[in-house]
Design brief:
It is a single chain. This protein starts with a helix and ends with a strand. Helix 2 links the parallel strand 1 and strand 2. It is 41% helix and 28% strand. The longest helix has 23 residues. The chain has one domain: Vaccinia Virus protein VP39 (Rossmann fold), CATH 3.40.50. By secondary structure, it is of the alpha/beta class.
Length: 180
């Protein structure tokens, strides 16, 4: 069943993953953290660009699926609130259809902020329906909440827009790690 879900996720999220990777615009040789990488579509796109990828996902099946797509990536079975990474060790982070699942949300945002270098960006893309189902909030309300939590934890200059992928039925959200 897990492999079936991974295939459906890979097919359904490919366009959104590509848009998130483009938005982050990480340079070859940089390190990018992928949070909740699922079957590894975004991980593979980043690795193909010569980016050092570190990914975390709580699912053993998703770790296995992602390893098939990107064998050079460092993939860990973990959650956003417990990252086994050094302070200020990553140049950017991406979360596609996973930020709404971060629990506890505040601790997860703080942990992501901790590992981002000053000036590094967190880029997220999330289906409207996934936000509503997971958080019981409408997308605009969730964005305002996420921006406030991010600002309290050192991720500033939050902005959001409608994603181009999936006919705009997803919200893109970006925040930048404040300078120390």
């Amino acid at each position: 069943m897990g492999r079936y879900i991974a295939k459906k996720m890979a097919d359904g999220n490919a366009e959104t993953e590509a848009e998130a990777v483009e938005e982050l615009a990480a340079a070859p040789g940089t390190t990018v953290l992928v949070l909740g990488f699922g079957p590894g579509v975004g991980v593979a796109l980043l690795a193909a660009r010569g980016i050092d990828v570190v990914g975390v996902d709580p699912s053993a099946v998703m770790v296995e699926e992602a390893r098939r797509r990107a064998p050079t990536a460092r993939l860990l079975r973990a959650t956003a609130d417990r990252l086994d990474l050094a302070d200020a060790s990553v140049d950017g982070a991406i979360a596609v259809n996973s930020i709404q699942l971060w629990k506890p949300f505040e601790a997860s945002v703080a942990e992501v902020a901790r590992v981002l270098r000053p000036g590094a960006r967190l880029v997220t893309y999330t289906h409207d329906w996934a936000i509503k189902m997971s958080t019981r909030r409408e997308a605009d309300d969730w964005v305002a909440h996420a921006a406030a939590v991010c600002a309290e934890r050192g991720l500033v200059d939050a902005r959001s827009w409608r994603a181009q992928a999936e006919d705009g039925r997803s919200v893109a959200f970006c925040a930048t790690r404040a300078a120390c």
